Amino acid sequence: MGCVFGKESSHVGRKEGDTAAKVEESSRNSKLEEVGESSVAVKEEEGKEKVEEGGHHKPSRESRRRPRQNANPRPRNVPKESLSEQVAAGWPPWLIELCGEALRGWVPRRVDSFEKIDKIGQGTYSNVFKAKDLFTDKIVALKKVRFDNMEPESMRFMAREINILRHLDHPNVVKLQGLAISRMSSSLYLIFEYMIHDLAGLAATPEIKFTESQVKCYMHQLLSGLEHCHSRQVLHRDVKASNLLIDDEGVLKIADFGLASFNPDMKQTMTSRVVTLWYRPPELLLGATKYGVGIDLWSAGCILAELLAGKPIMPGRNEIEQLHQIYKLCGSPSDEYWKKYKLHNPTVIKPREPYRRRIRETFEGFPPSSLPLIETLLAIDPADRRTATDALQSEFFRTEPLACDPTSLPKYPPTKEIDARKRDDEARRSIVAKKAEEGTRKKHPRNQRVRAFPAPEANAELPLNIDRRRMISRGNAKSKSEKFPPPHEDGAVGFPLGASHRIDPSAVPHDIPYSSTSLTCSKDLTQNGSGPLVDPSSSRRKKGTRGKPQEPSKLSVGTSSNQ
Ligand SMILES: Nc1ncnc2c1ncn2[C@@H]1O[C@H](COP(=O)(O)OP(=O)(O)OP(=O)(O)O)[C@@H](O)[C@H]1O
Known about the structure:
Strand order of the largest sheet: 1-5-6-4-3-2
Largest sheet: 6 strands, mixed
Bound molecules: adenosine-5'-triphosphate
Number of strands: 11
Structural class: alpha+beta
């Protein structure tokens, strides 16, 4: 499409591999170096781990998992001298090839120098475990990259995350402490400080209602982390509450940089298929391939409004509906917008009648000082969203009650998102079991409805706790639109955005001209209105992914040059 979005910047053009070379090494050579690979207490057998993860025995996947090892790998971005240094340090050649300079100054840890305690999360390309570092006795999070068939996409996301995280250093950005490899170098683990909460988990806990100063505290930390990322030319591209981790001191850290990208000068084209649907800005829904910090700021605006509202503000079920919800809340783009961003493509969705902006009236119960910031962050034109630095200086953070100190936040019991989901699943299962039991007792036509009651996994949006589920679902959502709740249930979710907040997913909003292939200009939107959410060739489906917003297509390949 080639439209230019966002504002700024004076960034210097740079490639990912190059940037890693600029990382200050000294601060990174922490304990891990001292520890090295010696004296490892074997606490876990690799075979056992496979059983746990898959839930059933699988034939050894050692050969399948192992990276396609080039007999004579020639790492692309590693100078000769550091290549030999890295080989000597014990890094497998395939990892040197992928991560190059980002490994510099580190030595690999052995995964059996950690004791796995529990699985705490699951993402598109990883499983995350709570583990104990047997050298330091500290609790860490191990993000195990799934290398099924050595999928190049998984490896690329992993390499990107490592490269970018080594380039960042801020209290509100999760710190990559090192890397661990398994005995046969077939699995790779990213070692992170362990974070007891994520914001989605906290927000989904019915007993927790954030005060205004707590919302300010979280938002200030989020914007500070984003300010740092943007100052280092990094766009996160998947800001959402489940990617905002919180430690037991109340410190919020932005995590999951698997979709992040260096965005040197906004001249490079990038895929528009990023950011989880409910947090995706209009320009991406319209197929922009050149964009900037505005995309993260939009997501931050959604999170701010969500924390104040107590529920997601625009829970669209597919891209068309998402765009429609945006128009209804934020107004439709002006004629200048279409001209400025050269979105005159006839395939672009453009409402027949313009929508009026209704942020202030929709959120009239919000603290007044929050409204200008929400207005700015949710500006239709990304240039009007300004910067994270501007947001931090907004009236919202200068008006009483001020942001509380993170250490003064209540000490919440562990609320990992995955735990909240387990609790919900259990509650749903018991409802379904009860209904099924009633169904077998009563021989009545109505019972057929009971039998047709969706399986717990099949419909996450039972009346039990729709809003809560919506909040939780932001975490590991990888769903396709057909997994969203039926229209009759949708009226109960999300913030009321106007008269018609019940939208039949199969029905295109009447005032938006639409043809089945025409939501955006990108060629990759051919599978459905929402485009491929997972690798279409892959029939694998993750557990617990129903009824959730679409995640960015980590496995899909966009049409643009820089993913
Ligand atoms: N440092 C950490 N401490 C505690 N939990 C963590 C940590 N890092 C990740 N998690 C948990 O694991 C989950 C998945 O991690 P992450 O989002 O980084 O993986 P991913 O494969 O990139 O996932 P996604 O598909 O959601 O983008 C998170 O939602 C979080 O609950």
